[in-house]
Amino acid sequence: MGDIETATITIFNNGIDCPLTIFSYALLPGSHPAYSLEGPNTPLDIPVGEKTTVDIVFAPLAPALASGTL
């Protein structure tokens, strides 16, 4: 209902010799439907010393209490 808010999560690979493989990411069941995720397709390899981001978008359609878990 109006404003859309976005929070960005940055995932770093601080390892020393292996890529970080992310097979999937999602909101857990029970998360309010006003939440959505925007980010790279999975599976995803993040090379050593690199990073990627995932945006958590909150776009409510009406005033309400809302929670979500990534």
Protein described:
The protein is an all-beta fold. It has one domain (5-58). It is built from no helices and five strands. It has strands at residues 5-12, 20-22, 35-38, 44-46, 51-58. It has a three-stranded antiparallel β-sheet, with no helix packed on it. It is elongated, with a radius of gyration of 15 Å.
Comma- or semicolon-separated keywords:
elongated, mainly beta, 70 residues, 0% helix
Topology:
Blueprint (H helix, E strand, L loop, with lengths): L4 E8 L7 E3 L12 E4 L5 E3 L4 E8 L12
Antiparallel strand pairs: 1-5, 2-4, 3-5
In short, what is this structure?
The chain is mainly beta. The protein is 0% helix and 37% strand.
Strand content: 35-45%
Main β-sheet, in a few words? 3 strands, antiparallel
Unreliable residue stretches = none
In whole angstroms, the N-to-C terminal distance is 22 Å
Order of helices and strands: EEEEE
Strand element count: 5
Please state the average pLDDT score. 92
**Which structural category do the helix and sheet elements fall into?**
mainly beta
Number of domains: 1
Write down the overall geometry: elongated
